[in-house]
Amino acid sequence: MAPKVLISDKLSPAAVQIFKDRGVDADFLPEVGKDKEKLLELIGQYDGLAIRSATKVTEKIIAAADRLKVIGRAGIGVDNVDIPKATARGIIVMNTPFGNAITTAEHAISMMMSVARQIPAADASTQAGKWEKSRFMGRELTGKTLGLIGCGNIGSIVADRAIGLKMRVIAYDPFLTPERALALGVEKVALDELLSRSDFITLHTPLTDKTRNVISADAIAKMKRGAFLINCARGGLADEAAVRVALDEGKLAGAAFDVFVEEPAKDNVLFGAPNFVSTPHLGASTSEAQENVALQVAEQMCDYLLDGAVRNALNMPSISAEEAPKLAPFVRLAEQLGSFAGQLTETGIEGIRLEYAGAIAEMNVQALTAAAITGLLTPLLQTVNMVSAPTLAKERGIRIEETRREKQGAYETYMRLTVITERQERSVAGTVFADGKPRIIQVKGINMEAELGPHMLYITNEDKPGFIGHLGMELGSSGVNIATFHLGRIAPGEDAICLVEVDGEVPDEVMARLRAVSHVKQVQALKF
Ligand SMILES: NC(=O)c1ccc[n+]([C@@H]2O[C@H](COP(=O)([O-])OP(=O)(O)OC[C@H]3O[C@@H](n4cnc5c(N)ncnc54)[C@H](O)[C@@H]3O)[C@@H](O)[C@H]2O)c1
Ligand SMILES: O=C(O)[C@H](O)COP(=O)(O)O
């Protein structure tokens, strides 16, 4: 059955066409995003949800999203999605980090020019038949200092354009490296220095606990009298009430906001303030940017739903479309090793150690580790996948160690998973053969070579004559057919392991008889 996607926001129709061309059923219902109840009613039917900023993907929506595998944001900001809740349910959240960056940077520059020359007010006055030439005295940009708070994708494009306008650009961004600042032609400064030196300040950070109200009354007090403030990033970065006071008092010569604490902004404290310019969250609204983000998000969602490729996800390592089919057998191996160890572990898991050697060490190990944790936790938790597994493990205090080795042993690829509990460490290792099928090649240091089937018996025993015959007889007389049989031992007469694939589930009474077979130490049924 073709995957089904709901487009619940005003995305460019280009997205619908991509979904159609790739064989994904897409329902284009752009009004649903604003109607919480309708979204709640419909969401259970979909594998994918394509959104912009109007759709709020809350905990309640996620709880009702029984089939949902991916949320695709045609744009950058994902503050309208409850990512931790999506992650816990194994839903990938992806965005399009570059598709609307140029357009938004251009909007910030437009807002800076508009507010510097009071264009909206001058336009309204002129069209009202007044000719108030002396009322609208503006400010020149050339030679002025522009302070960027946040110098990522959009901030750095703004810097480039502002340098073109002959402005001096300074930036406050803790993650901006000196090399990057140099390459951009930007001076990296501390926040207080930026506040005191800038003639214009533009905001380009996400809204986080650290950035909320970065422009507070205190921050405004540190700014130059007559400075301008531009916010095309997120409402909440500036304290709107404090900005209103500063505009009324003339501390700020003007402010231009595209984004507001509450959107849609219908009755904002800033409305009507002197030299306040506003737009209704139009930063990304150009036909070019909307086409870019719609195409990109639709392709990314199709890649994931159809091929398992992951791009621009905020809660899962990337897996390229070329890589996905090559990685698939190794993901299966990692899941099997995790599941094998998980089913044999009865006490609390303190940590897991993952060792990758040979060709596998060069692969997307982050994805393989996520797959191994998925396999490990699946027997313990109801719903877990590669998206939720690392978070669920972390929440449970499970330590994850990863090592990569170039050295190859007998096998071209070698992956070993060791589960660490308070009582013991148990390891299981495997490889993928040229036929693309995973094999178990070591259990607790004992070499063997076994392909796992849906129903397996894991038996530990003493290596003594008669054991195999006795075991075979018990299974045969109980009507349990043996599909494959694999043996390994430390040394003649010592501890041994036996992995048997059987055709179907082994009833409890048969399990009890197997446990009574002489030289048997442990018998456990495993499912894959
Ligand atoms: N108005 C719109 O329509 C529109 C369109 C696109 C993006 N946006 C918003 O613009 C903002 C920036 O987007 P981007 O693509 O440049 O993001 P980005 O992730 O590329 O850049 C954000 C920058 O902020 C910096 N940063 C993080 N915390 C900081 C802090 N405490 N102090 C200073 N800097 C900090 C980061 O280091 C990073 O360099 C986002 O909030 C995004 O949602 C708005
Ligand atoms: O984060 C973004 O990409 C912008 O805020 C754009 O939002 P929009 O897609 O709702 O216009």
UniProtKB/TrEMBL annotation:
Gene3D superfamilies: 3.30.70.260, D-3-phosphoglycerate dehydrogenase, domain 3, NAD(P)-binding Rossmann-like Domain. Pfam families: 2-Hacid_dh (PF00389), 2-Hacid_dh_C (PF02826), ACT (PF01842), PGDH_inter (PF19304). It is an enzyme of class 1 (oxidoreductase). Pathway: Amino-acid biosynthesis; L-serine biosynthesis; L-serine from 3-phospho-D-glycerate: step 1/3. Its EC number is 1.1.1.95. Residues 109-283 form the D-isomer specific 2-hydroxyacid dehydrogenase NAD-binding domain. Residues 326-444 form the D-3-phosphoglycerate dehydrogenase ASB domain. SUPFAM superfamilies: ACT-like, Formate/glycerate dehydrogenase catalytic domain-like, NAD(P)-binding Rossmann-fold domains, Serine metabolism enzymes domain. The keyword Oxidoreductase applies. Residues 455-517 form the ACT domain. One of its GO terms (molecular function) is phosphoglycerate dehydrogenase activity. Keywords: Amino-acid biosynthesis, NAD, Oxidoreductase, Serine biosynthesis. It catalyses: (2R)-3-phosphoglycerate + NAD(+) = 3-phosphooxypyruvate + NADH + H(+); (R)-2-hydroxyglutarate + NAD(+) = 2-oxoglutarate + NADH + H(+). PANTHER family: FORMATE DEHYDROGENASE 1 (PTHR42938), HYDROXYPYRUVATE REDUCTASE (PTHR42938:SF47). Belongs to the D-isomer specific 2-hydroxyacid dehydrogenase family. Catalyzes the reversible oxidation of 3-phospho-D-glycerate to 3-phosphonooxypyruvate, the first step of the phosphorylated L-serine biosynthesis pathway. Also catalyzes the reversible oxidation of 2-hydroxyglutarate to 2-oxoglutarate. This is D-3-phosphoglycerate dehydrogenase. It comes from Roseibium salinum. The lineage of its organism: Bacteria, Pseudomonadati, Pseudomonadota, Alphaproteobacteria, Hyphomicrobiales.
